[in-house]
Structures are given as structure tokens and as C-alpha cells.
Design goal:
By secondary structure, the chain is mainly beta. It has helices at residues 12-21, 190-193, 368-406, and strands at 2-8, 27-34, 40-55, 61-66, 72-73, 87-92, 96-104, 108-119, 134-140, 144-146, 150-153, 157-161, 164-175, 186-188, 220-226, 231-245, 248-253, 260-265, 269-275, 279-289, 292-303, 309-314, 319-323, 326-330, 334-339, 342-352, 363-366. Strands 1, 2, 3, 4, 11, 12, 13 and 14 form an eight-stranded mixed sheet that branches. Strands 15, 16, 17, 24, 25, 26 and 27 form a seven-stranded mixed sheet that branches. Strands 5, 6, 7, 8, 9 and 10 form a six-stranded antiparallel sheet that branches. The chain is elongated. The relative contact order is 0.11. Belongs to the LAMP family.
């Protein structure tokens, strides 16, 4: 027997978090699973959100976000027996499904594996997906929780694998409930244990705290992508992230020595992905346009000091334009405006996402070229202005000279 309650969660702090994650509303999922004697055997209450990246038939990349959980069903959720452990199974229509399995040891139980499936054959959700079919990602979790303790994690946790990013928060779960009564003893997740603020089960307004603002210029890092046949993308740049929340601006310098990078190259697009301990992903997506390339898309998901997850995506950009077969360079500071809340300052930038030969940059197209082209125009205009003034003064003086003779 499955009993569940789906309700909006009040609290302005949660509203703020959902806006950051891009959701218009948030729902708390609550599941009370009972056995044949109607005793509770598994209890869970949590919030979650998913983001899927997929390739289109035009060889671009798009994103699908699942944040409205109001149509959730729980078919397949079980208490478990001696052969099979408890399982929570959640479906969102016929396109998405989510399953978490639990296992039991002598004195502990574990959240074992979390799996998420999505069907790109659904033409409403994925109308232009290049590959059609059901895709599943598996995330092993497997950490022990004492029996008869309820696992609690109010902080945001993120799982990322392949093209799926999963966010969880306000998690309260107890498998193998003893005597049909959920425990009052909590087992906190590591993020809640290390939090410097008191953890509560009800969200309140998140205080406006400011991260330390780096004054120094960010260190320049070198990044590359290999497609199996050699280097296909090169990037050298110093990066400074500017995040605005509640009119408070946080500035974060990317540190290359603690930043990992991956990516992929395709005939029409190229991706550079950066990640670190607090940055889940920072994506730069380049696009070909006839005989030129440019930065078309930036996506970011990262954890902030206040415990929230900041996520922004914009696939309608147009920066760093250069001709194919060359590299774009700009040593002066530039700003990539992804949204009102997120900008990236770049320093000593050089990128080449296509036509890389022998792992080396090709001919440079410098952003200062346009400025240098304007210099002779400005000088010529100024000289022409001076010449006109001289000629006007000459003719005025000549006229006055003739007027003087006429008086005699």
C-alpha cells in the first residue's frame, strides 16, 4: 500500500532557491510506505530537480529541466523482503522515472543506487532529439546510516553523470522503519554537519552574504579538448565570475590548478567544460556559422557559500567571433554577459574551437584590430576638421581685408 502527499512548500528562502535553479515553483514529495499490516516500513520526504542535456538533429545541444513534480506517481515502490530491499519508484508522466534502492547490513542501511531514466522518443519534450530511445543513468551512493535513524540533508546535493544533473534538498528518509514508527534521531549528511548555521527543516529567507571579492587579476589557465584524433579545441584565459543575488555581487576567480576540464568536438559545435570542488560545470559551447565561429552558449551550475545551487543557461549568445582556421584573441578585459545575474570577465583570452592543427593555435584575430582600424579614421577626421577651420578663418580674414579697402 502506498500513501503519499504532494504539496507546495512555503518559505521565501525556498522560493529564492527555486528561482536560482530556474524553477517557477517547488514541490515537496512525501511518501509513507506501509506493509500488509498497515505499519510504516519506509518514510521519505524530499525535493529534487533534474536537468538533461541532449543533442539535436541539427547537431546543437538543448536542455530540458524537470522541476514541476505535481504529476508524480509512485508505482513500483515497495517495502522489500528478504530477497529484495526497499525501493522508492517515482514517475513523472510517461517520459521520466526515478528509482532509489536501499540495502541493509547488520546495524546499518544504505541508500544504494539512484537511477534516472528519460525517453527521448517523446516528441513533445524532445521534438528534435538526434537519438531516440530510453536512456538511464546510474549513480552509486552507498553510505551507511544506523538502523532506526532518519537520514536528513537540508543542504543541496548534486549528482552529475553523462548528460544528467540531479539536485536534491530537504531530504528526510528512513528505510527499514522499526515498529511502524519513524525515528526522531537524525543522521545528518556531511554538508549539514559542516554548516556554520543552524540547520532547520523549514526554509527561511536566505541571508545576503557576500563572498570575499578578489581584487587581483585571475590566473590564466590553459585548457584543451581531445576527440581521439588529436586536439580539437584550445583555450587560454583568465576567468572571473560575477554572481548577483539579492543585489549582492559575489566575485570568484577561477583557479586553473584546482580546475578540471573536459569537452567534446562535433562538426558544427564544440564544448569546453570546466569543473572544480564548488563548480559542477561551467560550459562554453561554440558554433560554426558558414566560415566563422563564435561563442553561442554558456551554462553554469555551482554551489555557493550560503548552501544554495546557482544555475544559469543561455544559448543565444554571440561573443568571440572569428573566421574558421584562425584563433580569437583578446588580451584586454572583456565581459561575457550571460544574464543579469551572471557575467564572466575574461583576461588574456585566446580560443580556437575548430580546425586545430597539430595541437597549436592558428593565425590570430585580435579584438583590438577593430579599435586599431578606428585610429586612422579618427586622426583623419580630426585633421579634416582642423583644415576646415583654417580655411574658414582664411576666408573670413580675406573678406574683412577687402571690406577695409572699401572704406577709403
Amino acid at each position: 500500500m502506498v500513501c503519499f502527499r504532494l504539496s507546495p512548500v512555503p518559505g521565501s528562502g525556498l522560493v529564492l532557491l527555486c528561482l536560482v535553479l530556474g524553477a517557477s515553483s517547488s514541490y515537496s514529495l512525501e511518501l509513507n510506505l506501509t506493509d500488509s499490516e498497515k505499519n510504516i516500513c519506509l518514510y521519505a520526504k524530499w525535493q529534487m530537480k533534474f536537468r538533461i542535456r541532449y543533442e539535436t538533429t541539427s547537431k546543437n545541444y538543448k536542455f530540458v529541466t524537470i522541476s514541476d513534480l505535481s504529476n508524480a506517481t509512485y508505482n513500483g515502490s515497495i517495502c522489500g523482503d528478504d530477497q529484495n530491499g526497499p525501493k522508492i519508484a517515482v514517475q513523472f508522466g510517461s517520459v521520466f522515472s526515478w528509482v532509489v534502492n536501499f540495502t541493509k547490513e547488520v546495524s546499518t542501511y544504505s541508500i544504494d543506487i539512484i537511477s534516472f531514466s528519460y525517453d527521448t522518443s517523446d516528441n513533445t519534450t524532445f521534438p528534435d532529439a538526434k537519438e531516440k530511445g530510453i536512456f538511464t543513468v546510474y549513480n552509486p551512493v552507498a553510505f551507511g546510516i544506523p538502523l532506526n535513524d532518519i537520514f536528513t540533508c537540508n543542504s543541496v546535493s548534486t549528482l552529475e553523470k553523462n548528460d544528467v544533473v540531479q539536485h536534491y534538498w530537504d531530504v528526510h528518509v528512513q528505510a527499514f522503519v522499526q515498529n511502524g514508527t519513524t525515528s526522531t534521531k537524525e543522521f545528518l549528511c556531511d554538508k549539514d554537519k559542516t554548516s556554520t548555521t543552524a540547520v532547520t527543516t523549514t526554509h527561511t529567507t536566505v541571508p545576503s552574504t557576500t563572498m570575499p571579492t578578489p581584487k587581483e587579476k585571475p590566473e590564466v589557465g590553459s585548457y584543451s579538448v581531445n576527440n581521439g584524433n588529436g586536439t580539437c579545441l584550445l583555450a587560454t584565459m583568465g576567468l572571473q565570475l560575477n554572481i548577483t543575488q539579492e543585489k549582492v555581487v559575489s566575485v570568484i576567480n577561477i583557479k586553473p590548478n584546482t580546475t578540471d576540464f573536459t569537452g567534446s568536438c562535433h562538426p558544427q559545435t564544440a564544448l569546453l567544460r570546466l569543473n572544480s570542488s564548488n563548480i559542477k560545470y561551467l560550459d562554453f559551447v561554440f558554433m560554426k556559422n558558414e566560415n566563422r565561429f563564435y561563442l553561442k552558449e554558456v551554462n553554469v551550475s555551482m554551489s555557493l557559500n550560503n548552501g544554495s545551487v546557482f544555475s544559469i543557461a543561455n544559448n543565444n549568445l554571440s561573443y568571440w567571433d572569428a573566421s574558421l582556421g584562425s584563433s580569437y584573441m583578446c588580451n584586454k578585459e572583456q565581459t561575457v554577459s550571460v544574464s543579469e545575474a551572471f557575467q564572466i570577465n575574461t583576461f588574456d583570452l585566446r580560443v580556437q574551437p575548430f580546425n586545430v592543427i597539430e595541437g597549436k593555435y592558428s593565425t590570430v584575430q585580435d579584438c583590438r584590430a577593430a579599435d586599431n582600424f578606428l585610429v586612422p579614421i579618427a586622426v583623419g577626421t580630426a585633421l579634416a576638421g582642423v583644415l576646415i577651420l583654417v580655411m574658414l578663418a582664411y576666408f573670413i580674414g580675406l573678406k574683412c581685408h577687402h571690406a577695409g579697402y572699401e572704406r577709403f
